[in-house]
Specification:
Layout lengths: L9 H6 L24 H6 L6 H12 L7 H8 L6 H7 L6 H14 L9 H10 L20 E2 L7 E4 L1 H6 L4 H13 L4 E3 L9 H6 L2 H18 L3 E4 L2 H10 L9 E4 H10 L11 E5 L18 E5 L3 E5 L13 H9 L3 E3 L18 H4 L1 H17 L4 E4 L2 H14 L4 E4 H8 L7
Helix pairs in contact: 3-6, 9-18, 13-14, 16-17
This protein binds iron/sulfur cluster (SF4) (2 copies).
The site of one iron/sulfur cluster (SF4) has 12 residues, from helix 2 and helix 5.
Amino acid sequence: MLGKTLEDYEKDMTRCARCSLCKWPPLAQVKSIRYSQVCPAISKYNFHSYSGGGKMIIGLSKLRGRVDYSEEMLNVIYRCSVCGACDISCKYSRDLEPLEILHTLRATCVKDGVAPLPAHRPILDSMRNYDNVWQQPRKKKGSWAKKLDVKNAKEQPVDTLYFAGCTYSLRPEMQGIARTTVEVLQSAGVDLGILGEEELCCGSPAYTIGDEELFVENARKNIKALNSLGVRRVVTSCAGCFGVLKTKYPLVEPANFEVVNVTELLAELVEQGRLSFSRPLDRTITYHDPCHLGRQSETYKPWHGVERKVLNHLVIQDPPKEFNRGTYGVYEAPRKVLAALPGLELTEMERIREFSFCCGSGGGAKSAFPEFALATARERVDEAESTGAEMLVTACPWCESNLSEGIADAGSRLKSASIIELVSYALGGGELS
Ligand code: SF4
Ligand code: SF4
């Protein structure tokens, strides 16, 4: 967690029982042997060090001076999509904090000057030099919205700010989704504005790679800029932006706006009858829960208390610690929206909600270890295919992009789409592939 050190987690790392339960979903959630793994790094490399528990051992060994940094150690630490699946599984066995620890391990590597990895440096340099991750000049950030009739939130007061994020703003194949998002929300009467070329990167890549200083610098700039707009809420359609704005920004500075994901806003609009769907989709789809929209979107709850040993071996927290178990991530809103679309049938995969299997793109994995990211996407595509669906739908540009690569690499018959494209189609706009 932001600002913590390995020393802060020494007790957790010592208590890791080496039980390996962080490699699988909790037993009650396992539906078949085929899809019974939950850690992408274990699925690919099948060696304990790659697991959440394995990274606890690395952290403890580092803290106690038993090991020195090596290239292989860094490869193990970074061959991980920081998906947090290990964290949820551990919460069903030992109530430890593997995700916070593996983040702190990365942050320690950055502070000690052995990370980021060479493949990560251009991303972080781009954030410093251009305020986006795609090494594009700042003025290009608003190019996606050039032909749209949408307010500039800096010039006119608006109720809701659409924070498009670097990928939807700058990747040509993704810009259409940002435009569609604005059109759909405006059609439902949302008083919407954007920041265009003045929108900065949310900072998520810096956080997940472990560069806390850069993340905090970005977060501070964004919170100041967004606070000054006086908007009631900020809506994001990138799960990465949503995750940090909602859960990490409050650790930096207070914000005077609410953060919602576009699926939550769409679900609200459907409930209020402000979106009327007329065109049937006539498709069977399956839905992939993005990690940062699901299990990693719970707000951090700091705990201040003491630990006591009872019966000479059980450790209890006094007062009881409220753990994040992924239960309250955004799972219902996307499913409510999908259920409202005419002619659409949702067929679920085995690993869903907080037990979802990652797409493989996050935590700098795609830039540093593309073969790992692709193998993870292939695994998820295989699971999606097993449902018999025609389409793999998600709500995050990183997931959509990596899963599309997985589909292409597998020669799969699946099509990929984002929820907003389905909504737009059902409203009568655009075509689906
Ligand atoms: S991190 Fe948790 S689930 Fe994994 S081996 Fe350690 S105690 Fe077991
Ligand atoms: S964060 Fe994901 S990839 Fe990394 S160790 Fe945990 S489950 Fe495996």
